[in-house]
Write the structure tokens for this entry.
Amino acid sequence: MNADEPALADQTLFLDCETDCMLHEAGYSSNPAFVRSREEEAFERRCALAHMRVSVCVTKYAGARSPPVAHLLESTREQAESVQRELGDACTVVAGADLLVAEMDAARALCAWNAAFDLGVLEKYAKSPKHLTAAAWTAKTIDPMVQIAASVSGQYLSLNEAAGESKTGTGEQAVAWLRSGRWTELVSYCVQDVLLLESVAAPLLRGETRRLPVAVNLVPGEWQKAATRSISTQTPLAQT
């Protein structure tokens, strides 16, 4: 890399999504007693993700001085302005998917914990042709959850386990907050997830070990290859 070229970490867009329902409510079952082939399971999961709507997606570039951006994909401008007043300077709140899609298209790399979930629910918002845009997003995505499991732990870790910090909620609580109109808690939780993701992944992208016994080489697109290797927990965490 040229000395004047920005590091990959500084050109990576970290993101996290929360949705309007849980995977099982959209028709996906993670029950091991429900026997089907890996291909059938993957198809069922894709179908469920396609039916889920994204309530909020928070994005942030590593080390950026500007606050994270909370994209309320299914909300009005008035709703976004109301949430902005509640949260103040903690993040920038915008309505709709246009800015998010532009950010994802422009970023050198994307980073998400359990990226298959985030990319799966975001594909419907991509510009046409959607399948080509989604393929481009996938090719430049980094998934530390999968790549840490393949390189170090041998099993999928939750984000708070990898970060060594407790989270303020769960994916199930995020859905409950949405349904009860508690947008401040919902957006704050999603912002915290992105900050935790940055705290884990940005050091790894810069070659540091970050509480791990060895350095993990986070390379865009490699998470799909790693996911096919032998990992003890074959089904990734559904929603975080």
The chain is about 45% helix and 10% strand. Confidence is low (pLDDT under 50) at residues 228-235. The radius of gyration is 17 Å. The chain has one domain: 8-227.
